[in-house]
TrEMBL record, chain A:
<dbReference type="GO" id="GO:0051537">
    <property type="term" value="F:2 iron, 2 sulfur cluster binding"/>
</dbReference>
<keyword id="KW-0408">Iron</keyword>
<dbReference type="InterPro" id="IPR002888">
    <property type="entry name" value="2Fe-2S-bd"/>
</dbReference>
<keyword id="KW-0479">Metal-binding</keyword>
<feature type="domain" description="2Fe-2S ferredoxin-type">
    <location>
        <begin position="5"/>
        <end position="81"/>
    </location>
</feature>
<keyword id="KW-0411">Iron-sulfur</keyword>
<keyword id="KW-0001">2Fe-2S</keyword>
<dbReference type="InterPro" id="IPR001041">
    <property type="entry name" value="2Fe-2S_ferredoxin-type"/>
</dbReference>
<dbReference type="GO" id="GO:0016491">
    <property type="term" value="F:oxidoreductase activity"/>
</dbReference>
From TrEMBL, chain B:
<dbReference type="InterPro" id="IPR037165">
    <property type="entry name" value="AldOxase/xan_DH_Mopterin-bd_sf"/>
</dbReference>
<feature type="domain" description="Aldehyde oxidase/xanthine dehydrogenase a/b hammerhead">
    <location>
        <begin position="29"/>
        <end position="144"/>
    </location>
</feature>
<keyword id="KW-0500">Molybdenum</keyword>
<dbReference type="InterPro" id="IPR046867">
    <property type="entry name" value="AldOxase/xan_DH_MoCoBD2"/>
</dbReference>
<dbReference type="Pfam" id="PF01315">
    <property type="entry name" value="Ald_Xan_dh_C"/>
</dbReference>
<dbReference type="InterPro" id="IPR000674">
    <property type="entry name" value="Ald_Oxase/Xan_DH_a/b"/>
</dbReference>
<dbReference type="InterPro" id="IPR036856">
    <property type="entry name" value="Ald_Oxase/Xan_DH_a/b_sf"/>
</dbReference>
<dbReference type="Pfam" id="PF20256">
    <property type="entry name" value="MoCoBD_2"/>
</dbReference>
<dbReference type="GO" id="GO:0005506">
    <property type="term" value="F:iron ion binding"/>
</dbReference>
Amino acid sequence: MDKTREITLTVNGESVTARVPVRMNLVDFLRNELELTGSHVGCEHGVCGACTLLMDGRTTRACLTLAVQADGAEVVTVEGLAASGRSAALARAFTERNALQCGFCTPGMLASAVTWVEGGGSAERDAIRAHISGNYCRCTGYQSIVDAIADVAGSKAEDAA
Amino acid sequence: MTGPLSELDRPNSYIGRAVPRADAARLLAGRGKYLDDIRLPRMLHAVFVRSPHAHARIKAIDTEAARAMPGVAAVYTGAEIAEHCTPWVGVLSHLAGLRSPPQHSVAVDVARWQGEPVAVVLARSRAEAEDAADLVDVDYEELPPVLDAEAALEPDSPRIHEGYDSNLAWERKVDVGDIDTAFAAPGVTVVERTFRFGRHTGVTLEARGTVCDYDPGEGVLTMHYSGQAPHMLQVILSRHLGMAEENVRVVSGDVGGSFGIKVHTYGDEIACAALSKMLERPVKFVADRQESFLTDIHARDHVVKARMGVDAEGRIVGIDMDDITGIGPYSMYPRTSAIECNQVLNLTGAPYMMENYRARGRVVFQNKTLMCQYRAVGHPIAMAVCDGLLEDVARATGRDPVELRRLNLMPDDGYPRASASGMKLADLSHQKTLEKLVELMDYDALRRDQEEARARGVLRGIGLCSMVEVTNPSPAFYGIGGAPIASQDGATCRLDAGGALHVSSSVTEQGQGTNAILAQIAADRFGVPIERVKVTTGDTATVPYGGGTWASRGAGIGGEAMLLAADALKHQVLEVAAALLQAEAGVLDIRNGTVVDATTGAERIALSDLARTVYYRGNELPPDLKPELIATRHYRVTDFPFVFTNGAMATHVEVDAETGFVKVLGFWVVEDCGTVINPMLVDEQVRGGVVQGIGGALYEECLYDEEGQLLTATMADYLVPMAAEMPDIEVAHVETPTSTSVLGAKGAGEAGTGGAPAALLNAVNDALAPLGASIWQQPMTPERVLRAMGRL
Ligand code: FES
Ligand code: FES
């Protein structure tokens, strides 16, 4: 029950070493041990997407990942996305479109949106809808989120052209 | 719209503009401060032991093994907590005859729904508390569960409460005109249907929770919670913990969704307040998702038998209905679980002219999670029953549903008037919203598309709903019945030395953008750039006294209070300016943070100079001038019990004949919420509301087995709308300001949820019509659609 292990990982560009109970999941580790409370918990069983973050560049459910599984990994949370400016264009678009109400889904939604935009995703609405279908939003009805992601994906495509 | 409020070219004109929310940046950077983000020194984590049975006597609880576990500070049973926290009763005097027995925060003798708390463990960490909670040994004697609301009324049904002669909590009857004679008249067509509305729930993405912090030094309890009505909770804690109101402070930070779920009194949260006082340490409780499904209030749960009659010309002669609604084992405190049924009776048929109305509502106890007010209280039932019958009549008599509405909707120039149920109505625009909707959706083109699809064997349907929405409630909603729920709200505006405005309000923010519209109103009316307005809400220690945000009252009531406070402060500031400038106050104005000459716009004195003179160099002021650079105003609705808004909405669906899946192809809404303060925020409220309405109509259901076990207690089992299934939703407005206030704003938060289920029901039945099939049960799951089609 109280078996622990030492892990070393990079979180938002900083190296972190900690001894953690083997049963602790990554989102609890980030929230409770590192006080990175931007990652949220909505279900703790991998359905709602509120805990979505980037681990080694891929969107990951931090509630389904044990902290010990992140040993050696590179983790980027919403705080890191904001501080590095990686989510700046999306944050602007989310604000202009009011693509958040209570904001509880927003960190996970942003992580999914970042991988879409950085992966060269198109501004096509149905494709964006499919991409964010692992993220619950109970407030917005999704349309404004799709609008915001499409705005950024569209202007990125324009810049590239 | 015309009038001074819409002059968008005037400096600082923010009312009516799509101003983005100032707090968005913080939330987008992961800097929200939600309940679970709070950590206090020496804080204990509470984990509740909950009844696994729907109905069981608690014979004994053995807590010894749990107490011995590492990290555990204390374990308490319901009986032990009851010594520090009195039980409550969820009745209101204006709902005559409503009864409900005392409910303890944690069950004492009998657990009456699966998930009711029976004991609690407090430990250093949540994980340790959960480990120990597994070892609390409760000896139950199972009792027969009462589940189905109709069966619960049978004379031989087991009773849930000792000493009650039946499981009936409340009954109301309305009888206007003479429905039997009206239905029997020659040429009248009567349709009859039985509607079933399943239970669903709010599924706020952030679960309920609290951090309670009792300071024995000052005897003050601070409760942080994720909720909508801090002042209400302050009174409730004071009553049931035996503390003076002033020694209870309730703070609501960022709230991760609420939708009416978080406006009620939950035993686990109140118990945490008692525990913090007992242990003199901070206590935190955050529900996990299963606890949310088992203990957050559920909504709906109605069986309605209803009839509508129309005469030979197609005019509605009346509605006759009987509603049975199951509310769980107690009426929720303090709003009661009878309000939803009461609203169904008040609202059914309210958009239409009719002379005869008979309705009976029965509110029934059962061994399920408590049912109470969730977004659009009673509306989806009332609208689906009336507009469902209306389109049923249209099909039965070969009429077009739009034509039938044109014939029967109350005329826009016919107000004030009353509905058949006696609701006072004013400033509505059913006709205008319907015509605008027909245009927006291109009704005729959709009908052609439908014909074409039918020819190809594809089942497409179009459904509409004309609706009313209750907003801006007056004391008639709760206060009149003795509930400690303020119907008025207050706002304070303060000019600071730097020339900025600090404003505070008793309405609260849960993501709707309340704080943004308060800033818009204050900046607009007072005359400063919006960046110079700072807003505080959600803390009983600092904001004016008021009701909070529920029943779509934030903009209409809280906004009007802010308008009045900003106007009052402006008047006061101009008096000071007049004295300083030796001018008449009447020739001065405030624009962009500067006092100016009202006619020429010439700058006279910056607000910061004025404020600094008042605050720092009072010696420069005339000795008889007593400047007040702060103003507070309150507002309540006086002439009406509620301010009704109206809207019209429509949807276009395709039913898959093989699988029974309903695909929503399009959705259109025309809403009249009076003055629109921020069109972007209003449209987003409408869209979010529609999607919750779609959820209730197509996917979401709290299903129980015959033992009363909730079968849908995880997010994997309980389906909510996801991005891929949702359509884009087109929103347009008609603006008929309410004459009850200067601002003219009514609410908009519930329209979508209230009307979408009716539109969807109609669209699916329109799609099924060529097969001679119809469905009257929600959610309209694939299985139920196939059954309706006779394919299962
Ligand atoms: S909390 Fe991880 S998916 Fe819901
Ligand atoms: S904004 Fe509230 S859940 Fe998405």
